[in-house]
Amino acid sequence: MRWGHAHPTFTFHALPFLGDLLAGEMDDPRHVLDTTVSVPEDEDALNVGLWDVGATKQWCKFDVPYPSLFQDYAEHNANNLESCCSYKDEKWYPKGVPLMFFTAHAAKDTEESRRVLQKLRKMSADSPQVFHAGSFYATPGDVPGPLPCLM
Question: Where are the domains of the chain?
Answer without folding.
Answer: 12-52, 61-142
